[in-house]
Amino acid sequence: MMLSTGANPHPISIAVGGFNGDGVLDIALANNGTKHVDMMLGNGKGKFTIQRRYEIGFDSPPLVMAAGDFNNDKRSEIVIANGGSNHVDIFVAYNHGFFENQIRYSVGSFPQSVVVGDLNNDTRLDIVVANYDSNDVSVLLGNGNGSFENQTRYSAGSAPRSLVVGDFNNDTRQDIVVANEDSNDVSVLLGNGKGSFENERRYSAGSSPRSLVVGDFNNDTRLDIVVANGGSNDVSVLLGKGNGSFENQTRFSVGPYPQSIVVGDFNNDTRLDIVVANEFSDDVSVLLGYGNVVFVKQMILVTGNDSRPQSLVISDFNNDDLMDIGVVNSRMHNIGIFLGYGDISFGNQMAYSTYPYLCPCSMASGDFNNDTRVDIVFASCDADSVGIILGCGNGSFGNLMMYSTNSSSSRYSLAVEDINNDIILDIIVAIHDTNYLGVLLGQGNGTFASIILFPLEYGSHPFSIVIGDFNNDRKLDFAVANNGTDSLNILLQTC
Fold it and tell me: 64-96, pLDDT tens digit by residue?
């Protein structure tokens, strides 16, 4: 199934949620080329229609986005990071999947990553943004009504690229960990439970850390950190001591230029394993964890010559209760699926074409047609569209459906969420170049309504998006980080 996004939209990021309160998941698509966001409403049967387009505004197109319910109305809002504008935008959705005009908040320079969490234990969602050029993170505390306090900025290392929140010292308060690409380390900022943070503590990583995940890798009930190092072709494992400090890194080799990292238990031993997409060696590394936190590269999964794997998802694609791996192969123009056997092995890659000239760059999974089978959505970096492939429940997938994100709409981030409370997943996309946030509302049968575009400020360049209820009205809202205007936009969903 193909859903057109128009001419030259270059969709770059996608998010899914229930945006119009009908219990069906919808889609938002960020278009880098046309600087807008398309909203596509789902019908609960896997079909989508483009409902509205939203201008983002400013010169800076959207790069990444995420979805969450920021006002507690059980509807998803969207947050978009605009690459060159130093701000994030937040869109709040109406009951029918439409959004109010965004509210803009200043952040640091060139925001690259945005996450949400309750940082001050008031049951209201807050926002954290990694600012790549200003070497810091911005914390915006939520007021519970969809508005946020002005940012408080905390120093990080050089070129913070990605971040995660978690409780690293077992005090029930959220802390922050940041991967710093140019200083080759991670920053840990411990929270006091009131929304403020201690000065960073830095821990060495490999060369050019690009992405990170947290989890308990040695089964001691303490959170640990794993970092993918793009320059040294390895991953760093930092074991948590449970008091906010970490052991020195242990590094494990993977392939050249690890681009994406995910974790899961692939051999059913109750220990977390690591999966890394290696862009320059055209393969995926699987490192199995053991009780002493030694990771062994048991399997190299080949993705094809010059495939350039970038984005990963893990899910059970064939309903056998075993974890499988999905990978975006950007140069081969396909989605690769590796079915796990529950031991230390995987089946050969099954590749699903994204058409000869569609270059997938990011992906997410969810059940878009309510058949209890996992489906996949991906954003194409060169075709102004997002693609949907519906799962058959046996590890195979149906034909590709494409949805337009409009012309010149390069996108960096997408999210999947039920933003309209119809129990059907929707897709949200940050459209970097044309300054829009796009939402595709799911129809429950695997199709989506035409994209709804939410304009952001000209030049905002939304880069990252998160979804949450920011005003405690049980509706999901959006927060968008814009690296064109160095700001954060909040879009509140209303009835």
Answer: 666 777 777 777 777 777 766 677 777 766 555
Q: What is the C-alpha to C-alpha distance for residues 118 and 176, in angstroms, rounded to an integer?
A: 12
Amino acid 212: pLDDT: 95
Supply 189's token pair: 């900022």
- DSSP-derived letter for residue 290 is -
**Single-letter code of the amino acid located at 424:** I
Residue among 295, 280, 282, 172 at smallest CA distance from 227 = 295
Q: Which segment of 98-107, 176-185, 201-210 scores lowest on mean pLDDT?
A: 98-107
Q: Compute φ and ψ for 459, nearest 5 degrees.
A: 85, 5
> At residue 357, does pLDDT exceed 70?
no
| Structure letter (DSSP) for residue 44 | B
Whole-angstrom distance, CA of residue 135 vs CA of residue 158: 5
Strands of 307-422 (E only): list them.
Answer: 309-315, 324-329, 334-338, 350-353, 360-366, 375-380, 385-391, 397-404, 411-417
pLDDT in tens, 335-354: 999 999 998 899 999 999 98
Q: Which of 424, 381, 375 has its CA nearest to residue 97?
A: 424
- Classify domain 2-493 at the CATH topology level: Methylamine Dehydrogenase; Chain H (2.130.10)
**Distance between CA atoms of residues 11 and 409, nearest Å:** 5
Cα 28 to Cα 258: distance, rounded to the nearest angstrom: 28
Separation in Å, CA 394 to CA 137, 161, 306: 43, 37, 28
Q: Where are the domains of the chain?
A: 2-493
pTM of the predicted model as reported, rounded to 2 decimal places: 0.81
Q: What is the C-alpha to C-alpha distance for residues 306 and 225, in angstroms, rounded to an integer?
A: 30
Residue 180, CA distances (Å) to 156, 229, 331, 362, 427 in order? 7, 10, 27, 22, 30
Q: How far is CA 249 from the centre of its chain?
A: 26
State both tokens at 60: 């800076």
First CA to last CA distance, the chain: 31
Are 180 and 157 in contact, with CB atoms under 8 Å apart? yes
DSSP-derived secondary structure letter, 406: -
What is the rounded CA–CA span in Å between residue 4 and residue 62? 19
CA distance 54 to 42: 18
Which of 317, 309, 310, 269 is CA-nearest to residue 289?
269
Percent of the chain residues topping a pLDDT of 90: 52
Return the SS3 of 33.
coil
* Residue 13 to residue 430: CA distance in whole angstroms: 5
In whole angstroms, give the CA distance from residue 166 to residue 8. 39
Q: What are the tokens at 269?
A: 């031993």
